[in-house]
Amino acid sequence: MKSDARREKRVALRLSLDVTGQDVGGLAFAHSAQTINISGGGVCFETPRNLLVGTRLLLNIQIPPALRGRFGGKDVYRAWAVVCRVERFEGQSLSRIGARFVGGAEPGAAPG
Length: 112
Prior knowledge:
Helix content: under 10%
Number of strands: 7
Largest sheet: 6 strands, antiparallel, barrel
Strand order of the largest sheet: 2-3-4-7-6-5
CATH class: Mainly Beta
CATH topology: Thrombin, subunit H
Structural class: mainly beta
Number of domains: 1
Number of helices: 0
Distance between the termini: 34 Å
CATH superfamily: predicted glycosyltransferase like domains
Order of helices and strands: EEEEEEE
């Protein structure tokens, strides 16, 4: 029997995403990206930053009008996430990041 650790179905969906955190060198950063796919448990996106598994990130995901009803009418879903997968591709400047949501974030709140 095949075991699959994923609990949530992923949806291929391109949404605007603002990512804030610290890279492998400890330098703070903030940049815009797009989701590759998303689920109730996490998100996949690409970044030029060098991140390690375990890195905590603050994500601000732009919610399109058609989906806002699922997010309490909010136009931005703000959440803390932790990097659980990093894929680097030879000859490319971007890394693909898999990040698991670890809790909603209120402005000024510390990671959960």
